[in-house]
Amino acid sequence: MTVNYTQKVSDCKGFGSFWRLLFRWRGSVYKLIWPDSLVYCFLYFVCSMVYRFGLDEQQRRTFEQLSLYCDYFRNLIPISFVLGFYVSVVVQRWWEQYLCIPWPDYFALLCTSHIRGVDGPPKLLRSTLLRYVNLTMAMLFSRISG
Secretion signal: which residues (predicted)? Predict the structure, then answer.
């Protein structure tokens, strides 16, 4: 979703204006991640409360050993490798989609080669066809992005 903040940014004055822009709700990243963050914080506090108030000394030692065991195996698969692989796949998919976009250049070359003439009706026909193709592309892209 595209949200236009140009008017808000241009007349932003005073103390705290950056934070007002950062925490705008429409189109915000916080709008997307708040449920996950809330569940994460809830589970963290539940685990913390169980560890502090629900376990005896032996169970706490067992929990600490389990956390050290998990920390040891956490480094076996490097996160940077997995993240690099993921980014590579995402960029490859994006590039394939970019290459599938039907740009109007090929159609313009076809019109130029098949509709001969320098002035008059052939030139008017070529320019009209290319205007329609550009209008179609603009309508298509606005439909896709909205």
Answer: none
CA distance 141 to 135: 10
**Residue 108 burial (CB count, 10 A):** 15
DSSP 24: -
pTM over 0.85: no
The residue to which tokens 């998919």 are assigned: 93
- The identity of residue 14, as a single letter, is G
Contact in structure between 24 and 5 (CB atoms under 8 Å): yes
Domain boundaries, the chain: 12-76
Whole-number pLDDT of residue 78: 80
CA nearest to 105, candidates 122, 130, 69: 130
